[in-house]
Amino acid sequence: xxxxxxxxxxxxxxxxxxxxNLHIKPGEVxxxxxxxxxxxxxxxxxxxxxxxxxxxxxxxxxxxxxITNLSVDERARRGLGVMIQRPPTLRGLSxxxxxxxxxxxxxxVELLADKTNMLEFLDRxxxxxxxxxxxxxxxxxxxxxxxxxxxxxxxxxxGVDIENIAVVGEAANYILERGSKKKxxxxxxxxxxxxxxxLIITHTGHILEYVPADMAHVMYNGTLSCSGNPQExxxxxxxxxxxxxxxxxx
Amino acid sequence: MKNEASIxxxxxxxxxxxxxxxxxxxxxxxxxxxxEKAYLTxxxxxxxxxxxxxxxxxxxxxxxxxxxxxxxxxxxxxxCNTVNKDVExxxxxxxxxxxxxxxxxxxxxxxxxxxxxxxRTALQQNHGYFIRVKAGAKINYPVQTCMYIGQxxxxxxxxxxxxVEEGAELHVITGCATDPKVDKGMHIGxxxxxxxxxxxxxxxxxxxWGDGVAVRPRTGVIVEEEGLYISNYICxxxxxxxxxxxxxxxxxxxxxxxxxxxxxxPPGSHMDVGGRAIxxxxxxxxxxxxxxxxxxxVVINRGHLLGQAADSKAHLECHGLLLSDKxxxxxxxxxxxxxxxxxxxxxxxxxxxxxxxxxxxMARGLNEEEAVxxxxxxxxxxxxxxxxxxxxxxxxxxxxxxxxx
Lengths: 250, 405
Known about the structure:
- The complex is a heterodimer of chains A (250) and B (405).
- Chain A has 250 residues and is α/β, with parallel strands linked by helices.
- Chain A is 34% helix and 28% strand.
- Chain A is built from nine helices and twelve strands.
- Chain B folds into two domains: 4-353, no CATH class; 354-405, no CATH class.
- Chain B has seven helices and 21 strands.
- In chain B, the strands form two sheets. Chain B has a ten-stranded mixed β-sheet, with no helix packed on it. In chain B, strands 10-12-15-18-16-13 form a six-stranded parallel barrel.
- In chain B, β1 (68-73) and β2 form a beta hairpin.
- In chain B, α1 packs across α4 (116-123) and α6 crosses α7 (389-404).
- At the A-B interface, α2, β6, β7 and α3 of A face α5 and α6 of B.
């Protein structure tokens, strides 16, 4: 579904990402670990096409087609969806209105708001005075309406209390179509039916308790230094920190 | 009238007095001569184009759901019709003859010698309306008034008085416009509004003047104990030169005023618009909120809160959005406390649309133009109670037009 080939990205003239290669197949969820300031958010921003992330080399393919030079909205229309860490405040635009925009006016706003505990926020300005957790729920509510094929989440659990991490996780699963456990279907069949994919940046790994991931990568100094089983890598990072990654990268 | 002589003397001494703010307008470029226009028994006697113009400034041509209607074309009152018996609406000149007590209100909220525009109106006034709501009467439907320039080059000098008696409630919608065929004119409007104890006046004014029109309203409002004055001012179309600085005095304990303005300045427009709230009595509250947008024109947005009494509280907010490098938005917020117990605050921000906001909406599927239009619409979205549908549509289409420009 998403393929990055030798992607290098600069921000304000400074090279942040170097020669990144990544392949996310349909139905797969990948997580991205890594210390602060190592380029994880840059990667998501560049995939979405935000202007401040200048692609200096390499290519981005989505569903088999190159999207390296497409506009942000064209990428969104093709099925990319993103939750950035610090979205802007849009005072005069209500949450209800932006959810309608995301769902192209064909969406049951109240139903989705109920799922994300956002009913009482629907008529407030987008992110206007929202707490960290409220921002995440608002973003996921929008993404539930948008229904992207590739869901990119930048630290979905940061600033969210324990009670709401479950809400965030369920919302992510809803978008990834992983929540419905239909009777009589084998695990294998459930897996093969999945076609929505995800790329999730996480520091703590808490989100993995709700959203199972298929593959993990560690980003260090702007490169993907190693990849592997998410749980194994997480426990390794918990035990040894990112020092091991430095060794890998070197 | 008992103080007529002193008003005339004061005004005569101020005929050349330049205003404190705004460019000095040369009256010689205009004429005070206007042909008398025929009275219209029904507003549908206006041309289709004029009727559409009126709808765009909030005037219901069919007068449905309206308590009363007043329309002045140049110097002629062409329509004056009252439906609700609790509302009294008259030509101001008739009201002055009918009620000797009106002198207690005449030129009391605006000084006749404040500048040459007020002086000119005091000396050569061309009508204006008088609206009074009886004590305790709550008027369900708005009263609508329209000031219209239909003759090229004419100066309209009007003087309006609104009195909301104790405990009464009234919404006035005023639409001011110039005939689309007229390229030049001037409007001077003296407005004195009095909200008595416990009364409520909502005053919504929509301006649509045109490229060659100079506008100098002079407005004074006096609000008594527990009274409420809400003003909504909307100017989203081109105007050559507009300068106004209405002053609201909160003279009774617990009086409240809320002033909202939405200004959109296209290229060639010069708008110097402000407002002053004077909190003269304890526990008074005032709020001045402005949203200004320039697509190439000049906006000077002023605001002055003057806290003179204990436990008075006021907030000023001016937000400006510049959509063109050729435009100018100049915000001038002023806070002045003259007692330790006044609580005054302000919030001002002027700038262009942040690219992050545009990209945020693009990431939700809107193209760049749609994203800008959505942000602009949100920016100008100050909740205004009771606006007619036709006007809401007009505002929406104006926003669309400007944000796509």
